[in-house]
Amino acid sequence: MPVQDQGDNPSAEIPAAGEAARAPCPSAGMFGGMFGGLSGKLLWLTVFFIMLAEILIFFPSVASMRIRWLEERLNTAAAAAIVIDGLQPVELPRALQKETLEATGTKAIVLRKDGTSRLLATTDMPTSVDEAYDLTDVPPATAIRDALDTLIFGGGRMIRVYGPVGDTNTGVEVVMKDKQLRTAMFAYSRNVLLLSVLIALFTATLIFFAINRILIGPIRRLTGSMQQFSSDPENPAHIYIGDGGRDELAVAGRNLTSMQMELQKTLKQQKNLAALGLAVSKINHDMRNILASAQLMSDRLVDVDDPMVKSFAPKLLRTIDRAVGYTTEVLSYGKASESAPRRRQILLLELTQDVKDMLAIDPQSGIEFAEQIGADLKVDADGEQLFRVIHNLCRNALQALTAPGEAAPGGVRRITVAAQRVGSVVSITVDDTGPGMPLKARQNLFAAFRGSARSGGTGLGLTIARELVLAHGGTIALVEKPTVGTQFRIEIPDRPVSLEDYRSRTHLEK
User: Fold this and answer.
1) What is the dihedral of CA 154, 157, 158, 162, to 10 degrees?
2) Mean per-residue pLDDT for 106-124?
3) pTM, whole model, 2 decimals?
4) Pairing with 56, which of 64, 74, 169, 231 sits 20 to 30 Å away (CA)?
5) Please, what are the domains in the chain?
């Protein structure tokens, strides 16, 4: 009965996540998001910044309005003063003076001409004046300060205002209450505030719809695609399709599409690996039984008196033992974990000779197997795991040398395993004179199912070798060489000696 993995029915495992991803959020609608989503935040921030700009503009504006209002009063008073001055030496009747002052909104009018001042009209002349303002040349800062002073503290003060009449040397001065001025300034401020609010709302609305179309809409599409993809990542219909623009969101959309496609490929590979792991587990179970039977039968070869059988029997037994060990560790590798190395000092030359015997190179093939390793060179490693590493590399080299249509330059076909110790590190190189590694294999080096150098290969050999070397705290890398062929370098450091081991060794030596 076939076993169904989680990838066959994703909705059976994550319905809650899918439902949560498809559930409408508070900011899903245009008007719902106006108050709680990114659109609403942009809208209110736009209103706030426009109002802030209007406030900064308001102070110079109201100061300018105040100056204009006072200048209008001075111009009206100046026109009346010129008429009254033209009636000299006749004095203006008291009733007419009162009507003139009421028309100009002042309490007194003074004409300054030729260095003299003349009181032309007055009624209810105050005993004191609270503030005096000269409109000849008012700095902006002074105008703003006086405007704020009138708005905050004005309304019941008597002020004196002086200014020139046109471009002449004649000046006019009036005394008046600032109540009408303050009332006019408040009316102006109210109108400015109302207009500012309308401009802010109108501008913010335009900006809102523009940003919602240019920015918020594509972002919602991106997030919606992410939610749909997370609910069912194996569905190709949930891959985001961008609009092909050149802005940042379009670039982000293309990157999201690429990421989703790569993730789907990875999920497909993981699903295939899960199916492969199940198949390998079944094969491994039967293979262990077959190898156990072969192991029992091979044990009887030791008792045979044939010299040739006696010479091959130990190697055959070691080979079967390794095969049994491999089948035992297949399941742990399928779980993406290798057993911890059982390290000890081993002679590297003996291990390399076992690799040579395991390869069983045909003498008629013309392929040489060279060993450049000192007889006493030892490496601190797990013998079985290091055997697998060197065997995988040598087997890849042998396959490259025996591949059809691949001729070694100069007719030399050789696999060379060399090693040397530098301090506490043993460096091992596996070199061949084959055609070299293709570019695709170099780009996907140590990647399972993608790093194979030959057609039909899986690339698992290099992947397993890398994991085993890393478990020893070492490194494995492809070495660039001036000649053709492929060379790998393995560096395995010795285990650090603990203080207890050092003391025990020193005690035994004494």
Assistant:
1) -20
2) 74
3) 0.43
4) 74
5) 35-199 (no CATH), 339-509 (3.30.565.10)
